[in-house]
Amino acid sequence: MKLLQVQGMNKRFGGLKAVSDLHFDVDKGEIFGLIGPNGAGKSTTLNMIDGSLSMTGGKIFFKGHDISGLSPYKRAGLGIARVFQRDVLFDSFTVLENVLTGLHLNSNLGIKDALMPFSPGTRKKEQDLENKAMELLDFVRLSDRPGMMAVNLPHGDQRSLGLAIAMATNPDLYLLDEPLTGMNAEETSFMMETINKLRDNMGVTIVVVEHNMKAVIGLCDRAAVLDYGVKIAEGTPSEVTADERVIEAYLGTEQDVVSS
Amino acid sequence: MDSKRLLSIFGVLLLIVFSFAIAPFLGNPYWSSVLIMIVINILLTSSLRTIFILDEVSLGQVGFTLIGAYVSALVVMELGLSFWAGLILGGVASAFIAMAVGYPFMKLKGIYFSILTLMTTEILRLIAYSWKPVTGGQYGLTGIPSPNPLTLPGIGEINFSSMNNYYYLALTIVLVCLFIMYIIEKSHLSRKWIAIKDADNLALSVGINVMKYKVLNFTIACFFAGLAGGLFAHYQGLLSAGATGRFGVMTTLNLVIYMVIGGKSKFSGPIIGTIAIMLLMEFARPLDNLRPMLVGAVAIIFVLLLPEGIAGLPVRLKSIGKKYVSGVLR
């Protein structure tokens, strides 16, 4: 079953064509890679799927529904979660509060709860949320320091927390923007393990933007390669890495080497 | 409950008792009127800080307090409603208008939001200044009655035309408002506001309807600004919308100064800042028209040396103390 369908996606910034006529489908339960050199339009594509950027043209279908015009919070409600590259977490919050904020869609706290913080009903709701949050922190191995300020976590743990915030929305589709950048070897292998575990245990679908080819080959079932906003290849990681045009985009042609 | 929390609750209760006890001690209507204005301004500055949770500086709180003041005065004078109904209706009218303009306003951020709210305040003031049949135009509204006497069991009849008693009334109302604001600040609502301030794109991506919560913030803040206006109207007995009066630009700027000097990141900040600066202004009366300069100098000193304001002083002292102690030990 096709979970996500991108049809004829276009994005123009003034005269610059950031993404041109992009088509791809993502099946339920697969890890799909969007790869390409810097500036290829990968993050732009992700921004249009989660709704934070509007498309110049094209359509996006999620679970068969056209979501092209929906605002980001509505897409989150339908089951699309985004992990950003920069705004990974909320700076003012502790680790636990970050995940509690992520649980917004699963909480039924209303105005009444805001005005009656000490009522048993509100207390119970908040306790339930806290328990849920601790479970999620357990999954990313952060349950040992829920009270720590999130900005004081090491880089790798911050990225894991970002994943836990996304998990809190209970999504069917994750959009991960370069989840492995700036990580050391140990952090990288833990993150790859976690992403695989997420898919295997919960049956979710993941679209991951990455420019590290090695990581992609270890993680993805299928991948599409972008260059200057155009899809130049699609297939299994071993297929696309063997593709001549992909090698050219990454390394340049033999002629380039000779002339420089 | 830990001992630190008990101590701070005890401290707050002590302050409340003190603020009730001080009026008869000072014993003259002049000081009572100063205290009334302090209390009203505390509510107004706190409403400013509610919006500042979103990291936006509203220069429009004076405009919304104007709506509250005129609506509250007019429904009492023209429709014969009670002070209490007037007060609430003033707040509701202010909140309603805030909700109506909230969507376009909250689309803007930073300096653009500040300018827009400032312009709105001036427009509202000019409407009040020129809409003669309703607001009395340049002559203003006069003869706004003080609240009807209240009969409390055990105490007897309280007459609010006395300054002292009106101070008690205003203090009680403002304390109730502050309590509600404090509860909201500790609730999941303010967690969402802080999340939006930190990273609105991440807040959207976890399904938070950012615009809805921002407009709600603005509406709540302006409700309290409206209440402050009602309190002001029935205390003054007359309202005018001249450029140098209560609803002029200077009041707006003073509110921002109270908040910054008191400490913008703490709930207690606006309360401390308003009391400190308004008392400073009172005691500096002999300086006459040099007083704004004094306040300016104080503001500059705070921004440079203690940007977290008076409310941030304990933390600052603690860190200085720690540095000193570790220096001695080394």
Amount of beta strand of chain A: 15-25%
Shape of chain A: globular
| CA-CA gap between termini of chain B | 37 Å
The helix-and-strand class of chain A reads alpha/beta
Calculate the mean pLDDT score of chain B and round it: 91
In N-to-C order, the SSE pattern of chain A is EEEHEEHEHHHHEHEHEEHHH
User: How would you describe the oligomerization state of the chains in this entry?
Assistant: heterodimer
**Large-scale geometry of chain B:** globular
Distance between the termini of chain A: 48 Å
> Strands of the largest sheet of chain A, in order across it?
6-7-8-3-9-10
CATH class of the largest domain in chain A: Alpha Beta
Task: Identify the strand order in the major beta sheet of chain B.
Answer: 1-4
Classify the helix fraction of chain B into a percent range: over 70%
Q: Give the beta-strand count of chain A.
A: 10
Count of β-strands of chain B = 4
Q: Which chains share the greatest interface?
A: A-B, 36 and 24 residues
Which residue ranges of chain A are poorly predicted, with pLDDT under 50 across at least 5 consecutive positions? none
Q: Helix tally of chain A?
A: 11
Structural class of chain B: mainly alpha
Summary, kept brief:
By secondary structure, chain A is of the alpha/beta class. Chain A has helices at 42-50, 72-78, 95-102, 111-115, 120-139, 155-168, 185-202, 213-219, 237-242, 244-251, 254-259, and strands at 2-13, 16-27, 31-35, 57-62, 65-66, 80-83, 173-177, 205-210, 222-227, 230-235.
Molecular structure report:
The complex is a heterodimer of chains A (260) and B (330). Chain A is α/β, with parallel strands linked by helices and 260 residues long. Chain A has 2 domains: 169 residues, P-loop containing nucleotide triphosphate hydrolases (Rossmann fold, 3-Layer(aba) Sandwich); 87 residues, Rossmann fold. Chain A is 42% helix and 25% strand. Chain A has 11 helices and 10 strands. In chain A, strand 9 and strand 10 form a beta hairpin. In chain A, helix 3 runs parallel beside helix 6 and helix 5 crosses helix 6. Chain A is globular, with a radius of gyration of 20 Å. Chain B is mainly alpha-helical. Chain B has a domain of 221 residues. In chain B, 74% of the residues lie in helices and 3% in strands. Chain B has 14 helices and 4 strands. Chain B has a two-stranded antiparallel ribbon with strand order 1-4. A two-stranded antiparallel sheet of chain B has the order 2-3. In chain B, a hairpin with a 3-residue loop joins strand 2 and strand 3. Chain B is globular, with a radius of gyration of 21 Å. The two termini of chain B are 37 Å apart.
